[in-house]
Write a structure and sequence with these properties.
heterodimer, A: alpha/beta, Aspartate Aminotransferase, domain 2, seven-stranded mixed beta sheet, 13 helices, B: alpha+beta, Sufe protein. Chain: A, Arc Repressor Mutant, subunit A, GMP Synthetase, Chain A, domain 3, 3 domains, three-stranded antiparallel beta sheet, 8 strands, about 20% strand
């Protein structure tokens, strides 16, 4: 049976080059980078090099990169840390479609008495910047708005948003976990104060992430108990994973443009193939403003988990915004925030590609999908006869 | 992925009795778009009044499809009275169990069957009508339905009730009502606060020592953060006389601090009848 992995917004395969770069740090170079001897010193050098590579991918200075354990930690540190440093009167502005790594910390802060504003999106998943301006006019704010949405791939205009936020005197964080490695990012050219990224979304392993903090940005640390990362994130460095993240960023910087052009063509081929063979589907998220690798599509009259199980039986991995797949009872907050009707929300499937996908993968998927959809619609009480 | 039994997956992949019976004797429809699952059940009786043919259509996840398929297999050949005895637990058992969060799929099967039988007996063709008091407004679940799943499945927690019939799964405002139903069905009183055991009698010296300790560990650190401090002046019976120092001495909210923080802590750690008084230092 073929195996086709189209769930790269959930996690990606570790690149062989990345694994190769990491291995010596489990076997030969296992020193503590803080140590004052040669075991530590030679390792310190590699951590510094990794920091340079991560910085280079997003146009930052190496001193502005903090290594963390994951994207969620980076988002927590940025939102909670900036609010802590800003004092009690600050407002918090975010959007309804953020990842829970941002929404949950913001909601916790709301319980502590902060004014938290979650901005709405339109039917295409786009923000209205006038509403952002209004929210900013209510007082000093810490703003956390994602670069690209994990479920729909919809891209927010972060350079413009950051300028708007800075013009109003706010602090600007962006969760760029889905964007780094897929889109060109240069923090030099926009007034973003903080940016979160995660290793396992760009072919590094799980368990490592980073937070860019622009020089001069006030952020209180979450992890106390060590001088590491310039005192901003205590804990002995996860050296092999940091080296892996550095290598992954180096690969992305070199190959991203060509690879993502190819991936976008595959994604478009998948989309067109489904539209041509399956009636009653809808694309979720503005098709003109998406990540190159993401396709979120609803199959009306049938439910997402059923589709996923049939796909999985064919060796195809994807994900769904249906309630049943999460164990919660409500469909994805992202899909619902866009005003997608309940039936379409329950039948939404996300296909997310990577550089390891081929044309043959897409053709295989396109050959299987119509039969799966037809079979499930034959069982459905809602499907037109 | 869910931990589905082989039988669930088998019924999902090859559902039995799919379709709609033309001119059925009974029809039952439950579920909704908002909830993400729906089931339409139709049946035809033979001359002996047994369920000769049963068919279903389901919108829902793998376990919803499997539960519907299982239901049709269970009830085929039964009389209406026998079929009316089928519980959601029977459906789950037939499938070799369902994940706890998916038990509501089996409840949907039982409800559709009930409605279809009712439709045959009374001619009512209504879809699931909410009768009685609606407890969970997000998913439209009534008191009666919650009582039924609690009783049939011996449920003990709100989380279980949510897994079985969805009630309480969205905004959570009905959690108090659900807890009351569970308590009622289980024949229990809602849990009341456990009374702490009576504090041992302390000598005045012991009491002073304990008050000093509590102030040092529990109270001073909080006051010192705001540049304040507290000093124990005397203890007369149950009256603890203290003086506020530093920033606290001139603080307008110091009186609240005394009642809310100092007295509460001392009552918690020393004796429940203590009263804190500020005395001029």
């Amino acid at each position: 049976m073929n195996n086709v992995y189209l769930d790269n917004n959930a996690t990606t395969q570790v690149a062989p080059e990345v694994l190769e770069a990491m291995m010596p740090f489990f076997t030969d170079w296992w020193g503590n980078p803080s140590s004052m001897h040669v075991f530590g010193g030679q390792v310190r050098k590699h951590v510094d090099q990794a920091r340079q590579k991560v910085a280079a991918l997003i146009g930052a200075d190496p001193s502005e990169i903090i290594f963390t354990s994951c994207g969620t930690e980076s988002d927590n540190m940025a939102t909670r840390g900036a609010v802590d440093a800003a004092g009690e009167r600050v407002n918090i502005i975010t959007t309804r479609v953020e990842h829970l790594a941002v929404l949950e910390p913001c909601r916790m802060l709301k319980e502590r008495g902060y004014r938290v504003m979650e901005l709405d999106v339109d039917g295409g998943g786009n923000l209205n910047l006038d509403v952002l301006r209004q929210a900013l006019s209510l007082g000093q704010a810490v703003v956390s708005i994602m670069w690209a949405n994990n479920e729909t791939g919809v891209i927010f205009p972060i350079p413009k948003i950051a300028e708007t936020v800075k013009a109003a005197g706010g602090v600007m964080h962006t969760d760029a976990v889905q964007a780094v490695g897929k889109l060109a990012i240069d923090v030099c050219r926009m007034p973003v104060d903080m940016l979160a990224l995660s290793g396992h979304k760009l072919h590094a392993p799980k368990g490592v992430g980073a937070l860019y903090i622009r020089k001069g940005t006030r952020v209180r640390s979450l992890m106390l108990g060590g001088h590491q990362e310039s005192g901003r994130r205590g804990g002995t460095e996860n050296v092999p994973y940091i080296v892996g993240l550095g290598r992954a960023c180096e690969l992305a910087a070199r190959n991203m443009h060509d690879e993502m052009t190819r991936v976008a063509a595959l994604r478009d081929r998948l989309q067109q193939g489904i539209l041509a063979t399956c009636p009653d589907v809808r694309i979720n998220g503005d098709p003109a403003n998406r990540l190159p690798n993401t396709l979120n599509i609803s199959f009306l009259y049938i439910e997402g988990e059923s589709i996923l199980y049939h796909l999985s039986d064919c060796g195809i991995a994807a994900s769904s915004g249906s309630a049943c797949t999460s164990g919660s009872l409500e469909p994805s907050h992202v899909i619902r925030a866009m005003g997608v009707p309940f039936m379409a929300a329950h039948g939404s499937i996300r296909f997310s590609l990577s550089r390891y996908n081929t044309e043959a993968d897409i053709d295989y998927v396109l050959a299987r999908i119509p039969e799966i959809i037809r079979k499930l619609r034959a069982i459905s009480p809602f499907a037109p006869v | 992925m869910w931990d589905y039994s082989d039988k669930v997956l088998e019924h999902f992949r090859h559902p039995r009795n799919v379709g709609v019976i033309k001119n059925p004797d009974g029809v039952g429809e439950v579920g909704s778009m908002a909830c993400g699952d729906a089931l339409k059940l139709t049946f035809k009786l033979d001359a002996q009044g047994r369920l000769a043919d049963v068919k279903f259509q389901t919108f829902g996840c793998a376990s919803a499809i499997a539960s519907s398929s299982a239901l049709t297999e269970i009830v085929k050949g039964l009389t209406l009275d026998e079929a009316a005895q089928v519980t959601n637990q029977d459906i789950a058992n037939y499938l070799g169990g369902l994940p706890e969060q998916k038990m509501h799929c089996s409840v949907m099967g039982r409800e559709a069957l009930e409605l279809a039988i009712d439709n045959y007996r009374t001619g009512k063709t209504a879809k699931k009508i909410l009768e009685g008091k609606v407890i969970c407004h997000c998913f439209g679940v009534t008191e009666e339905e919650i009582e039924r799943v609690v009783r049939d499945n011996r449920l003990a927690t709100i989380e279980q009730v949510t897994n079985y019939c969805k009630a309480g799964g969205a905004c959570g405002k009905c959690h108090g009502d659900i807890a009351a139903i569970i308590a009622r069905v289980c024949g229990e009183q809602p849990p009341t606060a456990v009374k702490p055991p009576p504090a041992p009698r302390l000598t005045t010296l012991q009491k002073i020592k304990l008050i000093e300790e509590t102030m040092e560990k529990e109270i001073r650190p909080a006051l010192k953060k705001d540049g304040g401090d507290i000093e124990l002046i005397d203890v007369v019976d149950n009256r603890v006389q203290v003086a506020l120092r530093g920033m606290c001495a001139n603080c307008q909210v110091a009186r609240f601090t005394l009642k809310d923080v100092v007295e509460a802590k001392l009552r918690e750690f020393v004796a429940p009848d203590l009263v804190v008084e500020e005395v001029p230092s």
